[in-house]
Amino acid sequence: MPSYTHGGDIYGLAGPVLDFSANQNPLGMPPAVVEAARRAVEEAGRYPDSLCRDLRRAIGARDGVPPEWVCCGNGAADVLFRLVLALGPRRALVTAPTFSEYESAVTAAGGTVLRHPLEAERAFDVERSILEAIDGRVDLVFLCNPNNPTGRAIPGEVLEEILLLCREQEICLVVDECFLRLCDGGGEGLAPRLREFPNLFLLRAFTKSHAIPGLRLGYGLTADPDLPGALYRAGQPWSVSNVAQAAGIAACACPEWPERAMEVIRPERRRLTQTLRARGARVWESAANYLLFQLPGVTGLKERLLRRGVLIRSCANYPGLGPDFYRIAVRLPEENDRLLAALREEWN
């Protein structure tokens, strides 16, 4: 059996837990999304629209792009794997640490991955040094903004240089903006730049911003006229259920939901950061709804907290990190209180 390498793996546990390993909107699903999904179940007796026409129109209107630029899939990971299969890259550049599925998708498609290490001493920031790695050796570059698991956003001036260099080198640049709407200053992201950079592909999802990971709904944005069709042909046609499509349309109609969550996340993120640091943890400043921290020499914390009904993400399997690195989501105040209480009991 394959091993599970992400957060949110609650199914193999002995009992219920408070899950800090999955980074999603702490407010949960918007009521309108729940109701839309419930109504759509009644339509499950027929095939969903394989072209996601209504959903693409709703996403396009929300994100300010033509609907033909929108590519929908069964979560962002599905879109990612379709993209890599359609492009067939020889070599791809990823940062380390970052989301593991970029490397998994490239490897599955027969490509090779080059890693650009991010340094803890430099806050795991993507800096201008990455430009030296963007050359004839690679035909695909992945960036996560803000990065997972560090929560660090790419400085605007560095991102601009990467955009220009990739266009000049005719390299496809994939920017994962799945946490954009749960990030300080997220705004429109790079969507307004798509026409200017047809080699740019944006990866987005409703999973985090509207807390619907179980419905599986992600999408990509591209101004390349040939790429949406290539992605469609790279997988089975009915990848997005009618329930997920209805939920996505409803989510587009409540764009304020992520910002309401940020009103909770910002002060709670600050409180968690300060409390962890006061206990001696090394915590990296995050712009997102999660925190990366290190307890030098303290391993096995995930397993110890599980005995108290709290699940956190061990970052031992991230290239560039180690067994004393952990990631936690920022949840509601009373839930964060429970996490901190469990930490006090187990962190000695």
From TrEMBL:
Keyword Transferase: yes
Residue span(s) of domain Aminotransferase class I/classII large: 17-343
Cofactor entry: pyridoxal 5'-phosphate
Keyword Transferase included in the entry's annotation: yes
Family matches, as CDD domains: AAT_like (cd00609)
Superkingdom in the source lineage: Bacteria
An example Gene Ontology molecular-function term: pyridoxal phosphate binding
Listed InterPro entries: Aminotransferase_I/II_large (IPR004839), PyrdxlP-dep_Trfase (IPR015424), PyrdxlP-dep_Trfase_major (IPR015421), PyrdxlP-dep_Trfase_small (IPR015422)
Pfam short name (any one): Aminotran_1_2
Residues that span the membrane, as ranges: none
Keywords: Aminotransferase, Pyridoxal phosphate, Transferase
Name this protein carries in UniProt: Aminotransferase class I/II-fold pyridoxal phosphate-dependent enzyme
Source organism of this protein record: Candidatus Flavonifractor intestinipullorum
